[in-house]
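Reviewers asked in the last cycle whether our approach scales beyond single polypeptides. To address this, we selected a multi-component target totalling 410 residues and predicted its structure end to end. The input consisted of the following lines:
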Amino acid sequence: MKVPEPTLRRLPWYLAYAKLCQTQGATYLTSTQIAREIAVDSSLVAKDFSYVNISGKTRVGYEINVLIATLEKFLGFSQSHKAFLFGVGSLGSSLLHDNGLEQYGLEIVAGFDVKYELAGMQIGRKPIHHISHFGELQQKMDVVIGVLTVPVDKAQEVADLMVAGGIKAIWNFTPFRIKVPRNIVVQNTSMYAHLAVMFNRLHDI
Amino acid sequence: MKVPEPTLRRLPWYLAYAKLCQTQGATYLTSTQIAREIAVDSSLVAKDFSYVNISGKTRVGYEINVLIATLEKFLGFSQSHKAFLFGVGSLGSSLLHDNGLEQYGLEIVAGFDVKYELAGMQIGRKPIHHISHFGELQQKMDVVIGVLTVPVDKAQEVADLMVAGGIKAIWNFTPFRIKVPRNIVVQNTSMYAHLAVMFNRLHDI
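The resulting structure, written as structure tokens, was:
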């Protein structure tokens, strides 16, 4: 049963809220409480939870510890997924510095760049290699996730290289729509598109 | 006429593609070419462009230089928008380092944190202040955009503080659904939700 993307995007909100309630000392949480807090319909919360193997008790709701552990496992946050990062520019370096990603299951183990002067450096304690060493390292480390932070005009070329080298999932931070074979997972996080929405709405006020 | 959010999210893709074509020496671009490249329907491209004041010539299409300049202006990327950042942890520091945002119109001018030991520091050449100085600096600098990168359990509290201090638009990077008055713009960029989608789809392969 394929979990719909909107569900997968809402579950982390429920998780964040459950964690907050936990730090405030709560032990149980109902879907009605979640629905009210997140401002979605409670039937939607119940539907989202139907994809996850979570069972609550009538009236008292879900045991928070169990809810958190189950959601973290379901979302893949409690498991470590190794990833390579491609393009050690401004955004790429930032992500190498961000160890918050590890708490959510993503461990960037190395960065690659075309610039020879970057090879051999460490950024955020992650080694940087020249892009020509990717194939060799991929075979050794069997990394299947690639973070794409290259300039727009290199996005497709590097995506092709990633796929050819064995990457199965690409987290694309470029505003470019990369083309990949059907069996490759692509998740687009275009921060600039979010900026555009924010600027536009701000001017409408 | 309020521009729909999906349109605002697609326009930066068109812009990225137009810039790519420009570097490759093209001078004109048709909506059919854009549609084929971005893998959307060409009527959708035309509809998206109808919100922007762009006129193409029959058959030859849009003049690329004009298209790029018009889109950048429309999306707010060619204007500098000052912003404050709240929460100088791992992700917050990363964003202070990312000068790529400036190319898209966002200039983070200062960071705020509750930790007294961070006050007086500079990260990515941006000064860090104790959160207690926010009100005073906001009045001086008239910044209306706030980037929210605090821990989940502080998200609502800090959002309230931002709004009380005069922030009109919040770029929320926390996985928490903050509640704000109706006239405040919120743009959620939950990188962890994107990770969850990627992990899930990867396991489905």
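The mean pLDDT of chain A is 92. We regard this as preliminary and will revisit it once experimental data from Aim 1 are available.
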